[in-house]
């Protein structure tokens, strides 16, 4: 203690004699040195603790995996109830009350479940419940930390914990967009009936990324009853309309055609664009007139979409309109019109051949490319 | 003479001292901002399960543009690797920029390419295109090869942009290794930000000594070569600290030329890459940002702290020197081309923070350091140096550099922890002690030389030879 006190007095005495700039530099130096030592200790101890934990987890994971493997093997040969009882008993022999071992087991069962389907996945879910691991998921859902909450939502979806559906429903309108999207996705996943009613009440925007996640889920799970997504095309929330339009297209809900024609005048350009695209994909002949009418009122990007749609519909009634578009000075419009005419088959191709004779070089190149 | 020396001493004591303090303060702010941004990113993205989304048909389409010049030895492997990225909707546009070797023939043979009729929408003027090639194989329909007259990297990228059919363009270096899920991770900011994202970049890492199989990085190692090792530390500091912090305040001035995803519409409206500078990546970003400000369009440039791209760092002094010389010239050219931005409040963060930072810290820093060194040597020669004070000042800067480098290593350790071996971690930490004495003086020399070459009108790119991955 005395040595420390003497050193401190000496350093402070030395510092006091320095000119102001060097005095300031000395203090910065001392702070940096102290910080450097602390950071160094943190870095080394972090790595050492992490290595220790890895070793410890490896040991317990090996034991857990062994029991799990036996469970998977027994499941095919023995009575399922007996197999489950035995496995639960074996797990209870581990120091199961230790939180980290319970966490490891929790992670392992979920991990196994992720890699199995059918009967094996069902049995793993039974095991999960029998070990009362779902209580950990519930705890996570109630956590104040949003990352933990999200992890809980994802795990509830993975283990199909339908009993937690009411807790998840409350998170659908969460202020955090990350929680909201995962809650919406899981809610749809867990409630195969009437799982879309929340779309009606949704005021928050569904960002494109969230739409991608929802679309991916909705188009991959087996819904017991597929709703008519055109129901929500009148929503005042543009992102809900956008999502539903994509779903209308994916599930080929032709009933939505009239609403799609109305949406051509929607104030949101993205929705106009999607509606045009879907009408084209549906080959909606009755939309042709409306599309041609809109053509003069929209920007070049939408013009290209309209021509593309007319090319998909290819009723043969718009050949002259398309031939005019081939002459457009805008490359994208002219090129799309050339392709649209080619989509019409022989009548369109013959018009293109005639146009070729009088066309400027760039149009000739386009026609050559399209007809090649 | 005495008066002159007094003035020089005063300048050295006053201006350089306070300048150094200001620079150190800016680094502290940058370190704090990057920690904040890293935390936010990890918090937001850790739960994301990319596996199901990678092949989603609903993900936006992307055109990958890879310029190639004399890449004969690796081009086929590199293109194969690009064709096997984990993403559903993308095309690969390889631009053979008038290679003098057999790059084109290798591509034609490996991918059964044939010349096709193609109407090019020349929205950006480039050197003449000799032909467009596509594969006869249906499985390779996403590959397009452009053969054009040599015009440099920027010109090749512009030719690729003219041919690209999708709204998002990923500009890459053909000799880089792209992580299989990189496209989706770069596309994400374009879909989950409430404002228009005009560009996104990811962390570029050093692949020297790493194990590579069939164009894929399979194991990360610390480079064997000391020079490359220093670059590991330098890249970590630059990407995990610098760019991330600027991304936090939407002040990014550069997205690495090795990997950058852009909004094609804005790139075209800005006139594409400039062929008048060797720092085309930085210059394009400044021009895109200026365009958005000019048209009062809200926008964002985003940086992803994930390691998405691996590049081979120069492993010998000559090549590294040429690279750094070019970077210095590129920075100076870009800054001079857009000098009207400096302290111009019209450009917001760009004009008041990022641009001044690049000019006063990134560009001016090495010059002042060099001048300071000359003055120091002069004062030593004249016996006018107070050794104790000088050592304290030097120790302050050295200790500060150690803190920043250690902090960078901690960021890496807490985030993506690519160097799993404890030995690699220690090597990296030891490097931070050596860097100010060995690597930094070299970089300083090349930066000064780059500035000198700029003044003497040197425009060449500089030959970059690579050893290839192991």
Poorly predicted ranges of chain B: none
Q: Which whole number gives the mean pLDDT of chain A?
A: 88
**Structural class per helix/strand content of chain B?**
alpha/beta
Mean of the pLDDT scores of chain B? 91
Largest sheet of chain A: none
Count helical runs of chain B. 14
Give the ordered list of helices and strands of chain A. HHHHHHHHHHHHHHHHHHHH
Order of helices and strands of chain B: HHEHEHEEEHEEHEEEHEHHEHHHHH
Distance between the first and last residues' Cα of chain B: 59 Å
Largest interface: A-B, 48 and 45 residues
The helix fraction of chain A, in percent, is over 70%
Sheet with the most strands: spatial strand order of chain B: 3-4-5-2-1-6-11-8-12-7
Number of domains of chain B: 1
The total count of helices of chain A amounts to 20
Radius of gyration of chain A: 33 Å
Mass-distribution shape of chain A? extended
Radius of gyration of chain B (CA) equals 23 Å
The count of β-strands of chain A is: 0
Structure, described:
The complex is a heterodimer of chains A (372) and B (470). Chain A is mainly α and 372 residues long. Chain A has 20 helices and no strands. Chain B is of the alpha/beta class and 470 residues long. Chain B has one domain. Helices cover 52% and strands 16% of the residues of chain B. Chain B is built from 14 helices and 12 strands.
């Amino acid at each position: 203690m005395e040595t420390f006190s003497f050193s401190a007095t000496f350093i402070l005495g030395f510092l006091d004699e320095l000119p102001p700039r060097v005095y300031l530099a000395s203090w910065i130096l001392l702070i940096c040195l102290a910080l450097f030592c602390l950071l160094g200790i943190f870095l080394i101890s972090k790595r050492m603790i992490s290595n220790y934990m890895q070793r410890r987890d490896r040991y317990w994971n090996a034991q857990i995996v062994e029991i799990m493997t036996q469970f998977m093997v027994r499941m095919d040969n023995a009575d399922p109830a007996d197999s489950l009882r035995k496995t639960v008993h074996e797990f209870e022999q581990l120091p199961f009350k230790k939180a980290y071992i319970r966490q490891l087991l929790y992670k392992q069962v979920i991990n196994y479940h992720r890699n199995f389907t059918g009967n094996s996945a069902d049995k793993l879910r039974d095991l999960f419940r029998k070990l009362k691991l779902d209580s950990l998921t519930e705890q996570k859902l109630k956590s104040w930390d949003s990352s933990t909450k999200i992890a809980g939502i994802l795990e509830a979806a993975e283990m199909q914990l339908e009993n937690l559906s009411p807790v998840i429903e409350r998170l659908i309108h969460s202020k955090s967009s990350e929680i909201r999207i995962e809650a919406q996705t899981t809610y749809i996943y867990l409630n195969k009936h009437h799982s879309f009613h929340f779309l009606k009440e949704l005021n928050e925007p569904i960002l494109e990324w969230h739409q991608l996640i929802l679309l991916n889920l909705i188009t991959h799970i087996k819904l017991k009853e597929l709703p008519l997504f055109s129901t929500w095309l009148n929503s005042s929330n543009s992102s809900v309309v956008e999502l539903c339009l994509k779903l209308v297209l994916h599930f080929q809900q032709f009933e939505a055609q009239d609403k799609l024609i109305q949406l051509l005048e929607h104030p949101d350009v993205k929705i106009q664009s999607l509606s045009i695209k879907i009408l084209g994909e549906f080959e909606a002949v009755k939309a042709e007139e409306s599309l041609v009418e809109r053509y003069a009122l929209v920007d070049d990007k939408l013009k290209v979409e309209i021509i593309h749609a007319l090319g998909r519909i290819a009723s043969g009634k718009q050949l002259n309109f398309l031939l005019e578009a081939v002459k457009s000075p805008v490359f994208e419009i002219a090129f799309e019109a050339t392709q649209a005419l080619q989509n019409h088959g022989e009548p369109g191709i013959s018009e293109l051949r005639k146009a070729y004779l009088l066309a400027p070089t760039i149009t000739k190149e386009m026609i050559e490319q399209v007809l090649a | 003479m005495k008066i002159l020396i007094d003035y020089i001493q005063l300048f050295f004591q006053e201006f350089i001292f306070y300048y150094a303090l200001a620079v150190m303060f800016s680094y502290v702010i940058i370190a704090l901002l990057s920690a904040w941004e890293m935390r936010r990113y990890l918090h937001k993205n850790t739960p994301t399960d990319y596996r199901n989304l990678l092949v989603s048909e609903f993900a936006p389409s992307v055109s990958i543009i890879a310029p190639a010049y004399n890449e004969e030895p690796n081009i086929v492997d590199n293109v194969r690797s690009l064709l096997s990225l984990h993403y559903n909707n993308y095309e690969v546009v390889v631009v053979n920029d008038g290679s003098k070797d057999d790059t084109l023939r290798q591509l034609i043979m490996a991918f059964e390419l044939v010349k096709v009729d193609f109407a090019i929408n020349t929205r950006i003027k480039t050197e003449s295109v000799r032909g467009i090639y596509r594969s006869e194989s249906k499985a390779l329909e996403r590959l397009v090869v452009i053969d054009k007259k040599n015009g440099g990297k920027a010109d090749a990228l512009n030719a690729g942009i003219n041919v690209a059919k999708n709204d998002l363009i990923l500009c890459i270096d053909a000799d880089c290794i792209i992580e299989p899920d990189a496209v989706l991770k770069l596309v994400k900011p374009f879909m989950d930000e409430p404002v228009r994202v005009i560009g996104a970049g990811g962390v570029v890492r050093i692949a020297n000594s790493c194990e590579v199989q069939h164009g894929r990085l399979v194991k990360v190692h610390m480079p064997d070569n000391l020079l490359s090792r220093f670059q590991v530390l330098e890249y970590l500091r630059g990407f995990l600290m610098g760019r991330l912090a600027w991304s936090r305040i939407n002040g990014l001035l550069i997205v690495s030329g090795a990997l950058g995803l852009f909004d094609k519409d804005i790139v075209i409206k800005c006139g594409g890459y400039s062929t008048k500078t060797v720092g085309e990546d930085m210059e394009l970003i400044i021009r895109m940002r200026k365009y958005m400000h000019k048209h009062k369009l809200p926008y964002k440039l985003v940086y992803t702290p994930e390691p998405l791209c691996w590049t081979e760092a120069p492993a010998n002094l000559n090549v590294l020197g040429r690279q750094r010389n070019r970077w210095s010239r590129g920075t100076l050219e870009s800054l001079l081309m857009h000098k009207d931005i400096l302290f111009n409040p019209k450009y917001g963060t760009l004009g008041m923070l990022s641009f001044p930072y690049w000019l006063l810290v990134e560009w001016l820093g090495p010059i002042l350091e060099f001048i300071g060194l000359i003055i120091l040597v002069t004062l030593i020669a004249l016996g006018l140096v107070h050794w104790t004070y000088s050592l304290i000042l030097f120790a302050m800067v050295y200790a500060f550099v150690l803190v920043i480098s250690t902090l960078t290593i901690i960021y890496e350790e807490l985030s993506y922890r690519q160097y799993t071996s404890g030995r690699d971690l220690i090597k990296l930490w030891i490097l931070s002690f050596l860097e100010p004495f060995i690597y930094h003086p070299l970089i300083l020399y090349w930066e000064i030389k780059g500035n000198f070459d700029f003044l003497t009108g040197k425009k060449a790119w500089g030959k970059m030879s690579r050893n290839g991955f192991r």
